[in-house]
Amino acid sequence: LNTLVDQVRDVESRALEVAALSHVFATKVLEEADEIDDLHTTAISNTENLKMGNEYVRRTTERSVDFRVLVLVVLVVLSLGLLFLDWYEQPTVKSYGLFVLSSGSSMPMLPRRLETGPGIPCSAEKDVKKFSSRLRSTATGWNSSISPFSPSFSVSL
User: Fold this and answer.
1) How far apart are CA 33 and CA 55, in angstroms?
2) Tens-digit pLDDT profile for residues 15-53
3) What is the mean pLDDT of the chain?
4) What is the DSSP string of 1-47?
5) Which of 37, 62, 111, 129 would be 148's cystine partner, CB 3.0–4.6 Å?
6) φ and ψ at 103, to 5 degrees?
7) Dihedral angle over CA of 55, 60, 62, 67, nearest 10
8) The pLDDT of residue 128
9) Burial of 152 (0-12, 13-18, 19+ CB in 10 A)
10) Element at 101 (helix H, strand E)
């Protein structure tokens, strides 16, 4: 009889051990189910965030292109404005025989020697500066009695 009681106790202890292991297994399965639900919820929210991020990137690239076009238009308009102002402020050149009178500068109308041909604008800023310095050295101030069209007027450049 002892052996039978020992066998029953042995079977009972093994059954308790199996029950404990079954309880641990069930607990772990429930924890995994909770983790799987959390992962599913996170995946759904990440998918929504990814869609919103893609939409944000698309809108940003559209705005970036619009901004680049706006900057390009502003630069072109400003450049054309500068070209117009430069053209508008260019001195008008009039040819009178050997001399060219230039207006549009801050200096009084000074004759410049025409070296490129009649009616063709020439860059003679050095000549104007040379002429004005010679004029200042020979006379005190601008003498209104001297005219570039008078026969006694002579300039040697």
Assistant:
1) 33
2) 999 999 999 999 999 999 999 999 999 999 999 999 999
3) 75
4) -HHHHHHHHHHHHHHHHHHHHHHHHHHHHHHHHHHHHHHHHHHHHHH
5) 111
6) -115, 165
7) 170
8) 60
9) exposed
10) strand 99-103
